[in-house]
Write a structure and sequence with these properties.
By secondary structure, this protein is α+β, with helices and mostly antiparallel strands. The chain has a domain at about 35-115: OB fold (Dihydrolipoamide Acetyltransferase, E2P) (Beta Barrel). Helix content is about 20%, strand content about 30%. The chain has a seven-stranded mixed beta sheet with strand order 3-2-1-6-7-4-5, with no helix packed on it. The N and C termini lie far apart (about 50 Å). The relative contact order is 0.23.
Length: about 120
């Protein structure tokens, strides 16, 4: 009887460990809900066209650059915020989050991630 309980306990422990390992190995979800290529950008009118959809691009948008293109700073981090919507250019591949979108209203981009060329972006949707 003790051997049977010992085997069951080991089986349960192995199962828990497998679940924990698989959860840790799962890819992290991207911090953005959408992604695409900038088709057109007009900084004067604060609009941007991404995959044929028009969005508002406020001056306060947070733009994140990959570490390889980010300016040097004393504290290393994976991503940097350059603090300017002017960073975004036609042809860039970006991930982004939108707010205030609805029927008859253009969405407003609140965050954008410049994605490295050739990357296959994964979104939360």
């Amino acid at each position: 009887m003790t051997t049977l309980l010992s085997c069951i306990a080991r089986f349960v422990l192995v199962g828990i460990l497998l679940v924990a390992v698989q959860a840790g190995a799962a890819p992290a979800s991207a911090p953005y809900a959408r992604h695409g290529t900038i088709d057109l950008i007009d900084h004067n009118s604060r609009t941007v066209v991404i995959n044929d959809a028009v969005y508002i691009l406020p001056a306060t948008v947070r733009v994140y650059l990959p570490e390889s293109t980010a300016p040097l700073a004393p504290e290393p981090r994976k991503e940097r915020v350059p603090g300017s919507a002017l960073t975004l250019q036609k042809g860039m591949h970006i991930g982004f989050n939108v707010e205030d979108e609805g029927p008859g209203r253009k969405g407003r981009i609140i965050e954008a991630w410049v994605l490295p060329r050739g990357s296959k972006p994964q979104s939360r949707e």
